[in-house]
Write a structure and sequence with these properties.
By secondary structure, the protein is an alpha+beta fold. It contains 17 helices and 5 strands. Among the domains are: 134 residues, no CATH class; 131 residues, 60s Ribosomal Protein L30, Chain: A (2-Layer Sandwich), CATH 3.30.1330. The N and C termini lie far apart (88 Å).
């Protein structure tokens, strides 16, 4: 049996008008309900019929009747039925919308056109299930395109800027390297669109490299326009490096390699950073200590000057604090800047073992790591009854799940070595893996990622005695 068309003739509408009149508010309510059910998309035939009837009555100024609301009700019902049949497809459509699908994107436009066609056919009673897979695939592609647009936009903008500066010709190696990074970010999303953190980190590196290529292109263009010789270029860069070297107070022998000069500058800057951090920690500790002394003196003053015993106790406490400060200084001198940094945090001592390196993806301790742990164990032995926490940290490369597991395995490996080989009481020590959740450097740079890959040994004296 052929399905009756939902388009009503003028005669049919007249018959509906004899049933009962309705207000404009009733029509608006019925229309809003149909619109909320996305009838225009999921029941296009019924929706067009209702819209045509409404516009005809508006143009003729006749009294509206329940036939119009009936048409909208029919559109709502048809849209609801279609939504149930197309539920898997509509789930993917919603995901694409949530991802920020661009209505100008060809995948999205093609998907919407296909959906409207399928919905109209379902209204006519046609089985459209064979088309669901293709329709789902199109919405899936629209979602992926939206994710890529959001995560890779900055890198692609930097690429466009580099092209304007002719970087592909003037800085081909750097430009090609940036393109490789951007392609890698695309591949990550193609393989797993939920790996947004990894893709974003790679995309940020690509953005930086495109900008680098732009700067190189500007420099090359200037060199060529000014007709500088190779020697002129080298002297220009040496001059800049020499300014930095002089500011650091370093001497320079013309026979020295500039690689050596750069290495010395890096060591100098790292030393300054460590010194600054140490001074900040000492300042915070001193302020806390002074505040506690001031409070004690206030209480003693309230007691009319206090007793000799109380003042002796205060002097003893001051002497104990000086001994602890000296102990911390000795700990700090036990390591070179390349091996470890000694920090203080809320009374804890943190041994940041940046010299402890692991093979990528491995938790096996190297010979260098074992030697460094031996010296760390000697320091721990000097803090009797202190609680020890081994913290494992990674950079943001890879998935969060992998980083959490790897950081925990590395922390466990260090803890096992300390308890088994260094004979540290297992009741005093525990291991925690934080993954990439506590960075100390920028994950967008190689140097920052190297800083984030670390083992921290946290020494917590009983009752925070070092605070």
């Amino acid at each position: 049996m052929k399905k009756l068309s939902l388009t009503l003739s003028a005669a049919t509408l007249f018959l509906f008008s004899l049933i009962s009149p309705v207000s404009a508010a009733d029509i608006a309510a019925a229309r809003n309900t149909a619109a909320a059910a996305e009838a225009a998309l999921l029941a296009p035939t019924a929706w067009k019929a209702a819209e045509k009837a409404r516009l005809e009555y508006q143009e003729t100024s006749q009294t509206a009747d329940s036939g119009i609301t009936g048409l909208y009700d029919a559109a709502t019902k048809a849209a609801t039925t279609t939504a149930v049949e197309l539920k898997p497809v509509l789930v993917l459509r919603t995901r694409a919308i949530d991802a920020g699908a661009d209505t100008n994107d060809r995948n999205w436009q093609r998907a919407e056109k296909q959906l409207s066609s399928v919905a109209a056919a379902i209204e006519r009673g046609s089985d459209q299930s064979r088309k669901f897979a293709a329709l789902s695939s199109t919405y899936d592609a629209a979602e992926l395109a939206a994710i890529k647009s959001r995560l890779l936009q900055r890198a692609r903008s930097a690429e466009s800027l580099a092209r304007i500066g002719d970087a592909q010709r003037l800085a081909p190696k750097t430009f090609a390297n940036a393109q490789t990074m951007l392609a890698e970010a695309v591949t990550v999303l193609d393989n797993d669109r939920t790996a947004t953190e990894t893709a974003q980190a790679i995309s940020a590196s690509a953005e930086t490299e495109f900008k680098h290529a732009t700067q190189i292109a500007i420099a090359v263009s200037q060199v060529r326009s000014d007709r500088l010789t190779d020697e002129d270029v080298i002297l220009g860069w040496e001059e800049r490096l020499q300014v930095i070297n002089n500011a650091a107070g370093n001497s320079y022998d013309a026979l020295d390699s500039w690689d050596d000069v750069v290495a010395q500058l890096v060591t100098y800057i790292e030393s300054l950073n460590n010194t600054e951090q140490g001074l900040r920690d000492e300042l915070n500790s001193s302020r806390t200590y002074m505040s506690s002394l001031e409070e004690e003196l206030r209480v003693m003053d309230e007691r009319l000057g206090g007793t000799v015993a109380e003042r002796d106790s205060l002097i003893f406490q001051q002497q104990e604090d000086l001994r602890r400060q000296e102990k911390l200084r000795l700990v700090n001198e036990s390591f070179t800047p390349e091996e470890a940094t000694v920090l203080r945090r809320n009374g804890d001592i943190i041994l940041r073992l940046q010299g402890m390196k692991f093979t990528s993806g491995s938790a096996k301790l190297s010979d260098t790591a074992i030697t460094l742990l031996a010296r760390t164990g000697q320091i721990i032995d000097s803090f009797l009854d202190a609680r020890i926490t081994v913290e494992g940290h990674t950079d943001a490369s890879g998935s969060a799940k992998l980083n959490d597991r790897l950081s925990q395995e590395r922390a466990d490996a260090v803890m096992r070595h300390m308890t088994k080989e260094l004979r540290i009481d297992g009741r005093r020590i525990n291991a925690v893996g934080y993954g990439s959740n506590q960075p100390v450097g920028l994950n967008s740079t190689p140097a920052g990622r190297a800083q984030n890959r670390r083992i921290d040994i946290v020494i917590s004296p009983p009752e925070k005695a070092l605070q």
